[in-house]
Amino acid sequence: MFSQLQFPLVFSIYVNVYEEAYSKCSASFSCGNFTDIGYPFWSNDQPDYCGHPGFKLDCQGDTATIDINSQKYDIVEIYHESQILKIAKADFMSNICLINFINSTLDFNLFEYTFSDQNASLLYYCDHLTEHHQPRIQKFTCPINNRSIDCYFSAPAISSYDELSSRCKISLLIPVLALAVEGFTIHSWSIDQVIKGGFEVKWIIDHGPCNDCLISGGKCGYNGTTNDFTCFCPYRPSPRTCFRTQPPANSAAANPSTAP
C-alpha cells in the first residue's frame, strides 16, 4: 500500500519542479535600460538554471553589468541577432585614474573580439617628457597617493618598444572601437569618449538549440549537471525541443517508469 501511494507523490513532485522551471525562465526579460533579453543571458533575480553560467547579468537601476574573467563590464548595447555585446570596463566608466592596474582578457571559450575593435594604450607613472604632438597620443594627470602623476593615452596602441612605453612604469592595453580611434585622431574626441564607447565582443554560444526550443513552445535553460543547454517544457525538460513532450497520462502517474 505504501509503495502504491508513494509513486504518484514522487511523480507529482517531479512534474511540479519542472513546471516551476518552465514558468520562472521567461522567454525574455529586462535588465537596466535593456528589454527583450534572452538566453544565454539570465539576471540576478532569476534561478541560475535559466541561463549559461558565464552570462549572468547584474541589474542595478538603469545599468546592466556582466563579469568576464573576474572583471566587471557595463553593457552598452546588446545585439541578439548578430550575438554581439558592446561593453565597457566598469572601472573606466567613473575614472581612468585606477588604483589597481589589471590587463583585462576575455574568456575565449565564450567570447571573441570583433573586427570593429582596436587596441589602445593607457600608460601610468611616466617620466616627465617633452609634450607629444602626435594626434594619437594625449597626456593626462592622475592624483594617486596624494601626488599628481603623468599618464598618457594612445590610440591606436603604441609598441612596447616605443620610447614613451619605456618611460612609463605601467602600460595597459585596452580594446576600443576602431571608429572611436578615428574620432580621437581626426576629430579630437576626448579620452572619455573613446573609452566609455566600449568595444564589441561576439558570444560564441550556439543559439540553434534555443531557437528550436522556443519554436516548440519551450523555455531555454542550462543543465548544471551535464553543463549543457536544456529546453524546459511544461512537464519535463528536454535536450532540445518540447515537440515530443506530452502531459503525463493517468497510467504514467501510476508508474513513473512509463512517463514520456
UniProtKB/TrEMBL annotation:
Residue ranges of every copy of the Wall-associated receptor kinase C-terminal domain listed in the record: 160-234
Superkingdom of the organism of origin: Eukaryota
EC number(s) given by UniProt: 2.7.11.1
Main location: membrane
GO MF assignments: polysaccharide binding; protein serine/threonine kinase activity
Matching Pfam families: GUB_WAK_bind, WAK_assoc
Coiled-coil segments: none
TM stretches of this protein: none
Catalysed reaction equations from the record: L-threonyl-[protein] + ATP = O-phospho-L-threonyl-[protein] + ADP + H(+); L-seryl-[protein] + ATP = O-phospho-L-seryl-[protein] + ADP + H(+)
One GO CC term on file: membrane
Bilayer topology annotation: Single-pass membrane protein
Subcellular localization(s) per the UniProt record: Membrane
Boundaries of every Wall-associated receptor kinase galacturonan-binding domain copy: 25-88
Swiss-Prot/TrEMBL keywords: Glycoprotein, Membrane, Signal, Transmembrane, Transmembrane helix
Protein name, per record: non-specific serine/threonine protein kinase
